[in-house]
Write a structure and sequence with these properties.
Length: about 550
Amino acid sequence: MTVKAVGFGEDDLRALAGTRSFERGPGYLDAVSGLEVGEDSVTAVVHGTDVYEVELTLGGDEAVSGWCDCPYGQEGNFCKHCVAVGLAVLRRVKAVPQRRVAARARASGLEAWLSALSRDELLALVREQIAADRELRGRLELRAATARRDLGTVRGRIVALTDPRPFARYGCIEYADASGYARQVAEAASALRALTADGQAAYAVDLAEEAIRTLEEAYEAIDDSDGAVGQAAAAVAEAHLEACGVARPDPARLADWLVGSVLGDGVTDLDPLDYADVLGPDGLARLRRLATEALERRPSGWAERYLMDRLIKAEGDVDALVALHARDLVPTGATHLLIAEELESAGRADEALAWAERGLRDCAAETYLDGRLVDYVCARYARTGRAADAVAVRRDRFRIERSLTAYRQLRTAAGAANCWETERAAALATLEEDAPRERGGRYGGPVLIDALLDDGDLDAAWRQAAGRADDRQWAQLADLSRDTRPAEALDVYLRLIERSKEPTGDRAYEHLARLLRAARDCHRALGTEDAFAHLLADLRRELKRRRKLMTVLDRHGL
């Protein structure tokens, strides 16, 4: 249940952490200290193997999200320490409103105190802080150098901020260190914008390009799973664009630099068209020429094709765009679809459908075909009254793929064309060919059984399951038949229970408990509750050393 005062409850913590971390969290409740509740966040310290800092963010896409600097938390997981802090907040939920009022009061009091200090007192305070905090000192030194136009110092500081080496302890920047490097890169971006605002835009352009080059060279060796470095690099690119808008560098040189950056292993996702105003007609023409030459040298290069795609789209030349993509048609049909979508956007629907149909023909023998292409063709057939043609397309794909998804799509198309009965018989015959008897096992059951279950044809599923179905399919069949065939379903559950005794772990124990509950329902329907009681007692005796399993069974009333 979600607690209104904080916006989350235990269920939210369990869902984020998973059973294992959630159940370990209460063991750290007494280790939580320094709990501070703000408007939209909670911070605390948890004393575990080490002292860990935890921050919970309230609201957003989730009721709560968390960050911890323990090794597991730094991998992006909602760890046991986050759970402990969340539970600590819930324990004190009645005090949360007062804590938030107190936090606002502290912030207001600090603002009032700072406003009342004299100039000398503020200077003394700042000196005291920078003596104790090297990072703060570096930020203020950079701002001071920018203000007095000490460009040599500014350059040295920006180079230092974007230098990855201090963070690359083992030859690369690991996840735990990426956020610190990202903060420095973001600080460099701020310094570049300050240079532009202070009338040093041309110098800011040169420094930004140097920083971007450093980032591009370093990025492959950075674990940027959270995207923090990428975001900071984008801020540097924005600072470069802003500086170019003021400094108006030579268009030809800028075009050369942009092409080199786009074609390199970039991290900034530069869009050359953002610079169109700075480049002007001459710069854009050079950009187009350089892009054409690059594409001729490497026709299948992703970056080369992206660059040319952007330039052609800006020119609005649909035929040139089609010709570009037609040079390298991938066997999945994705390029055919791309061309079809461009033509349709240009109001050329007939040509669009022709290209999509060509994609189906060109890639007809491929086991994997981009499903969006098939969907595109079938949707247009449906809109123009060509239901039979849509069925033919789905039938062809089903015969090649022979998957449950393809079966469902054929069923939908044939249902719309009022021919599902005929198509279904042929489709099931095809699947039966792929499902010889005596192949059933724990995993990898045939599509035939899934198709019959999906159709709700339980009688046929029972007939076909023997020697074919895997454990998952048997369990699904038993679940669907429990009320109408309790004896047959019970036989299935008993087999699955026997197989499920061996695996261990939370998920395995929950699965075993679910099977036992289903077996109990069958025994009740058959009037054989005593037999289930003996089964459960024997199982508890056999597995009594697994204390976690006993706890799970207790929780399920078993």
